[in-house]
Amino acid sequence: MKTYDLIVTNGCSFVSFPFLTFRTKSEHKIIHEKGGASLVNDLQFGMLLAKKFDCASINLAKNGSSNERIFRTTFNFLNYKKFSIPFPKVKSYQYDDKKDYQNILCIIGLSDFMRGEIYNSESKRYLRNNSPGQLAKTKKLQFSKGIEKFSKTYFTYFHDKDEKKKITERNMILFDSYCKTKNIDLFYFSSFTDNPIVDGLNYIKFPKDSIGYYGDDRLCWSDYIRTYCDEYANKTWSSHPTIDDHNIFANYLFDYFKDVNYEM
To answer: In order of start, what are the domains of the chain with their CATH numbers?
Structure first.
């Protein structure tokens, strides 16, 4: 089996950290709003997988992330060692920012391709632009009314599902090409929705019965959870993976990478 000295994960809240035992909206608020994330960071699947490989891990995921943010921040880290927040506040396991890692495994949990981000020249940072009205709620902006008007105009005239899917597909191909030039092993999976399927890219394939809600391509983590958790399958809202789900996923990935063909 191939060995690694660093595992990099990125995605949205599905990848960011696990929830606790119960799949409830009240727990959702506890983890997101009351500092509960710090209690479960070490139980994220990338951290658990790193322990199995006896290597370092870094988790760049953030709640509500678009695929645009996922590609941007992963590239910035791999190419420039640049973080969106200062190190060592970044979620990590045995990561040394002075070390030059040579054998890297990068796992990308794709988010909803309809999500987006936009750069704000006032705050000098990227803002989530996932739905009409979201930008206006962003804190510390002095012209929220103008932002609200812009957001509504954007989603009315400049937001197209087919084009967003093409952009995601293009970014997947370009990022895969970059990783190959750096000898980085890159694998994609979908967190909770469908995403473009591109020939020639490496995907994490879930078991054969992981089909149904999001199609029959076996690339969606949410569908995999549905195969062993009836409670999850019956949820009417987008429930997040728990500690148990992250542990099951880490074990599955470890076995998966033992068998995967690395003649890529």
So the answer is: 6-111+165-259 (3.40.50), 114-159 (no CATH)
